[in-house]
Amino acid sequence: MNELHIQIIAKELAAKPSQVRAAAGLLDEGATVPFISRYRKEATGSLDEVAVAAIRDRIEQLRELDKRREAILKSLEERKLLTEKLKENILSAESITGLEDIYLPFRPKRRTRAMIAKEKGLEPLALRIFEQVGMDTEAEALAFTGPEKGIESIEDALAGARDIIAEWVSEDRQTRERMRKLFSAKGVLRSKVVKGKEEEGIKYKDYYEWEEPVSKAPSHRVLAIRRGESEGFLTFRITPPEDEAVTLLEALFVKGSGPASEQVKSAVRDSYKRLLSFSMEGEIRLAVKKRADEEAIRVFVENLRQLLLAPCLGRKSVLAIDPGFRTGCKVVCMDQQGKLLHNDTIYPHFSDKGAAEAAGKIRDLCSRFRIESIAIGNGTAGRETESFIKGLGLPGEINVVMVSENGASVYSASEAAREEFPDYDLTVRGSVSIGRRLMDPLAELVKIDPKSIGVGQYQHDVDQAALKKSLDNVVISCVNGVGVEVNTASRQLLAYVSGLGPQLAKGIVQHRNEHGPFRLREELRNIPRLGPKAFEQAAGFLRIRDGENPLDGSAVHPESYYIVDSIARDMGCSLVSLMKDGEIRKKIDLSQYLTDRVGMPTLNDIMDELARPGRDPREQFESFAFAEGVGKIDDVKSGMKLPGIVTNITAFGAFVDIGVHQDGLVHISELSDRFVKNPGDVVKVHQKITVTILEVDLQRKRISLSMKNGQAQVKAPRKKEENKAAPKAGTKRDKNKKPLARFANNPFYEAFRKKGKT
Description:
Helices cover 47% and strands 12% of the residues. The protein is α+β, with helices and mostly antiparallel strands. Among the domains are: 3-106, Orthogonal Bundle (Arc Repressor Mutant, subunit A); 113-304, Tex N-terminal region-like; 314-404, YqgF/RNase H-like domain (Nucleotidyltransferase, domain 5); 633-754, CATH 2.40.50.140. The strands form 5 sheets. The chain has a 5-stranded mixed sheet with strand order 6-5-4-7-8, with helices on both faces. Strands 11-12-13-15-14 form a 5-stranded mixed β-barrel. Strand 7, helix 17 and strand 8 form a beta-alpha-beta unit. Helix 3 (33-39) crosses helix 5 (49-78). The model is unreliable at 710-758 (pLDDT under 50).
C-alpha cells in the first residue's frame, strides 16, 4: 500500500486517511465494494458504496501511473538519458498527461525534419538563434554551409535551425500545458458533410455545417458527430482561434525584434501549424471523447440502476403473453417461483372464431393455474392483446400489466435460455422472460446483456471496456443491495453476488439440484471451492426464506449471529420473539454489546434487520394502465394528456411509452416549468407520469411531449407551403451571419425558435 496514494485520495475525497487506508487494505485482501460498505463500517468510518468504489478506482489509476513512471525511468536509464533533474521531474508528475509531456522529448520517434537538421550539425546554430542575443544570423548560418556538410545555402541552414527550434517549442512542457488549456477553453468544434454524401447521410443533416465551443458540446452531440465521421458522412475538427494560439506562443519564446527573434517567430508559427496544432487537436479529440463517454456511461448506468430496481410484483402466479397478429400470441403459465407450468398459442386477432377459442383458453388457464396477474409484452399487437384480455371479464383481482419486451428476444436465443429451457423454442422462452420481468425485474434482467435492455445513449460508440466495467458494477450493486434468495436464484443472478462469480454460482445451483434446497447458510460451505473468504463475502447477501434459522432470511451476517443470540438470552426470549416483538427490542441497551470490533453502526444495522428481516429496498408495485382508445400513433393528437412510463433517459430528455408502439420524447426544455440541467433530476426510468402531446410527425414517427404543468404550447402542424416559404428559418448564424447549421430535420426546432434561441 502506497502511503502517498492514501494521502492523495483522502484529500480528493475529503475523507480521513484512516478511512481510505482501511478501505484500500480490505480491497487488497479481496473484499468487494458491497461487503466493505455493508459489513465493515467500523473499519472504514461508515464509508458508503460510492466512496469505497471511488477509492478502488482511484487506487487503480494511481497504480497505473506508477507502472508507467517505472517503465519510463527504465527506458531512459537503459538509453543513458536519465539525469537527476529529469528523474526528479518524472517522480513528481501527478498525471499521465504530465508524465508524457516530460518524456516527449526523449521518446523514440520516427525520423523528423529536426532530426535531419541535427544530423547535419545545425543544432549549435539553432541554440544561438534561440538565445536571441545580438547577432548576424546570416553570418552565423554561413559557417554551417558547404557541400561537405550537405547544406547548400544560408537559407537551408536557417531553415534547418528553425526546424529544430520548432520541435523544441512543440515538445516544451510549459507550452503544451498552456496550449492544452487554450484548446479546452476556446477550441471550437466544427463539423461538415463529406462532399457527395449529402443525400446518403441525411440522418446527420443537423451537423452538415455545425459549429459550437467544444467546452459546451454535450456528450450526445459529440458522439453523434463522431459516429457520422466513422460512417463516412461527416468530418470534424477542433481548433482554437489561430491568431490567439500563435500570439500565446510568441509571448513565450520571442524575446525581441532582431533578426534572431524573427527567425524564432517564424519557427514558432511553423511549430504551431505543422506540429502543435495537430498534436493538441489529437489530444483534445481524445479528451472530449473521454468526457462524452463518461457522461454517456453515467446516464446509462443510472438508467440501468433504476430499471433493475423497478418495483417487483413478487411471488405471484403469472400468465404471460408474447403478443402477435399473424403468428398468434404465445401464452405461458408460471407458479409463484417462476417455474414454467404450461404453454400454448392463441389467435385472438386472426378471426372471430380464433378470438372465441382464445377467450375460452385464457379463462380456463386462469382458473386451472390460479393466475393472480397477467403480463403482456408491449411489442407488436401488445395494446390489442391488452384490450382483448381486459374485455374477457376476468376476476377483478387479476391485474393486467404491460411489460417491456426489450431484450426478451436476446434472452430467448441466449445460452442461459437454452440451458434453462432446452426443450422449448424461442417464443416460449421469450414469453417466460416477459412474465418473470413482472415478478422480479432484477432477477430476470441480469440474464441479458445490459446493452440490449433499451436504456442509455450511443452505448455502442463509447469505450466498451469502461462501459462493461461500469455496468457490471451497477448490476453487482443492485443485486447485493436487494439480496438473493439462494434456493430460487438463477446461476446468472448468483454470479453477481459478492464473493461468488460464475463458477461458484454454478456449483450452488448444481448442489441445490442434487441435494435439494438449502436449509442453512452454513450449508454453503459444502460447495466445492467455496472457501472461508468467499463465504464471508457472500453469506450476508444470500437469503434462505423459511429456513431453520430465522436470521438466514435476513441481511444479518453469520459472523454477527452470536450478538443476536446474546441479546435474546439477555432479554429472556426466543430469537423468533425478538424478531417479531417490537416492544422487546425497545428495551435493548445496545451499548452493552459494543466491542473493539463491533460498533454502533453494525448494531444499528442488526436492529433494523430484526425489525424487517430480508426487507426489499425496492418501491411497492403499483399497477399501471395506458389510456383507453389510444393504441397506435394515428390515435395520438396534439393537445392530448396521456399517462405514460419513462423508458429511457438521455442527456437531452426522456423517452416515454404512451402505449402506441412508438416512444415519445420529452425534450429537456419540456421536462419542467423550471430550468433543468440534468433530466435525471426530474424523472426516473420506469416512473409513471402524465404528458401533453405537443406534436406528432406521422411521416417520421416522432412524438413530441411535454411534462410542464398544463402550460405546454401545442404545436400546430406546419403546411408544406410554409416550409418552402422559409428555407432558412432554421439556420444558425455566427457574428458574420454565415450559415453554420441547418435544423431542417430537428424535431425540437420549433421549441427552440419560440424561445428565441435560433
